[in-house]
Amino acid sequence: MSMANTFTAGMLAIGDELLSGRTKDKNIGRLAEMLVLAGIDLKEVRIVSDEQDAIVEALNALRARYTYVFTSGGIGPTHDDITADAVSAAFGVACIHDPDAMTLLAEMYARRGMEFSEARKRMARMPEGSRHIANPVSTAPGFIIGNVHVMAGVPSVFEAMLDNVIPTLEGGAKLLSVTVPCPFGEGDIGTPLAAVQKNHPATSIGSYPQFDGVKFSTELVIRGREMIAIDAAKADVEDMITSIAMDKEQKAQEIGGQVA
Amino acid sequence: MSMANTFTAGMLAIGDELLSGRTKDKNIGRLAEMLVLAGIDLKEVRIVSDEQDAIVEALNALRARYTYVFTSGGIGPTHDDITADAVSAAFGVACIHDPDAMTLLAEMYARRGMEFSEARKRMARMPEGSRHIANPVSTAPGFIIGNVHVMAGVPSVFEAMLDNVIPTLEGGAKLLSVTVPCPFGEGDIGTPLAAVQKNHPATSIGSYPQFDGVKFSTELVIRGREMIAIDAAKADVEDMITSIAMDKEQKAQEIGGQVA
């Protein structure tokens, strides 16, 4: 889209299980929806395995490029949960057992009468100087360092953490959108729609094909920061649809005339 | 995972709609599953918007790094379908209306009595010198150039194209796996499991937490190229589970003894 927006985001989803097909990611779509509402453009997502070099490289690329970075996964208690180490390495700071997180977890396990094992203590590890992201579901906090927001991979926990993060973000203008139903398929509208898009650079026009089993139609979604720009594009889109309909009717009559 | 594998893959999913949350991607999980079966390690996925610079940069990074690259999306008839242009730019070749694809599409639209419009002709565009990926669903072919396989974003078409591509790929040994059910949560097994993993570098041991509403358990999945390595790791994992169970029983008896 051609609209400028100061607020951009990248996401890094971490985990072998996402790349083996064992787990189908749900967090990308959730983050995408929430960022649209917050007026922040999600520009890029990367999924990498539980390998420190891969995480560090992707994280450094994303955090240099976008206003905000959000990660999911790899902050549990097992040996393959290495996100805290990798984020610390990316920022060049020590990975410590955060004292406040240790207290939170120790109290929680004491309440439940469970051992606060070495493995469980791993969940208190984060880069020195991080701030917490509260975890109302299972206590172990996410963390924020620089522009990077580190959250859990379990969707219910990711979602709860994200709900705590979103209100703290400085967002752009909210992205507005209008949907225009169109009775024609993409093959009919492609060329004229490109012309409409070109005349309305302050909007982003997407077409979403639909097939009811008999014929194709499309939903045209016009997005923008200002309703006046969207309305102007919408008027031209509606004129385009009318014009295509008239063309088709005329052709049908011509064919009818020849047959008659 | 520490296992060497000559055959690796990266995926590039293209489309604003994936980053706005409007469409939830289904192709990444599908590709992941198929590549496991083919013995090819999917190492990285990137999702980018319909912007040529973003597509070119991600594609060039992935194709330099992995044996195979697979893309989804952006090969339809509308103005925002720019994958053919971007792939051509990445390879530094012309983007042409491929003559064979033009013939295929012209015949199909003639059969259906539909106009072969300029927009529809866009679907015949691909980098000069590409080979086709047959599309049994809706005719318009995907294409292969270098190590890059360009496929549609619509899941049914992506899947059909992928079915045609997979048998043509040279794969590694098939990845084998064994699942060991474990009655303990990740907090109990984290530390000893890390030790088992360290002793079995020819395997990759993943733990998948499960919660039945009362207590946590895990499924431990041991993956590897050779069953002898997996079996050795499995024996140690089973010993680990027995040892944790005995520890817990002993502690329970000690507490019982103190109370008595």
Give a brief rundown of this model.
With 260 residues, chain A is α/β, with parallel strands linked by helices. The first copy, chain A, is built from nine helices and eleven strands. In chain A, a hairpin with an 8-residue loop joins β6 and β7.
Keywords:
alpha/beta, 44% helix, 2 domains, 6-stranded mixed beta sheet, 24% strand, Ribosomal Protein S8, Chain: A, domain 1, 3-stranded antiparallel beta sheet, homodimer, 260 residues
Outline the fold blueprint.
The structure is a homodimer of 260-residue chains.
Chain A: E1 8-14, H1 16-19, H2 27-38, E2 41-48, H3 52-65, E3 68-72, H4 83-91, E4 95-97, H5 99-112, H6 118-121, E5 125-127, E6 131-133, E7 142-145, E8 148-151, H7 155-165, E9 176-182, H8 186-199, E10 203-211, E11 216-224, H9 227-259
Parallel strand pairs in A: 1-2, 1-3, 3-8
Antiparallel strand pairs in A: 4-5, 6-7, 7-8, 9-11, 10-11
How would you describe the overall organization of this protein?
2 copies of one chain form a homodimer. In chain A, strands 2-1-3-8-7-6 form a 6-stranded mixed beta sheet, sandwiched between helices. In chain A, strands 9-11-10 form a 3-stranded antiparallel beta sheet, with helices on one face. The radius of gyration of chain A is 25 Å and the shape is elongated. The first copy, chain A, has 260 residues and is of the alpha/beta class. Chain A has helices spanning 16-19, 27-38, 52-65, 83-91, 99-112, 118-121, 155-165, 186-199, 227-259, and strands spanning 8-14, 41-48, 68-72, 95-97, 125-127, 131-133, 142-145, 148-151, 176-182, 203-211, 216-224. In chain A, strand 6 (131-133) and strand 7 (142-145) form a beta hairpin. Chain A has 2 domains: 8-168, Molybdenum Cofactor Biosythetic Enzyme, Chain A (3-Layer(aba) Sandwich), CATH 3.40.980; 176-259, K Homology domain, type 1 (Ribosomal Protein S8, Chain: A, domain 1, 2-Layer Sandwich), CATH 3.30.1370.10. The two termini of chain A are 49 Å apart. The longest helix of chain A is centred in the C-terminal third of the chain and has 33 residues, at 227-259. At the A-B interface, helix 1, helix 2, strand 2, helix 6 and helix 8 of A face helix 1, helix 2, strand 2, helix 6 and helix 8 of B.
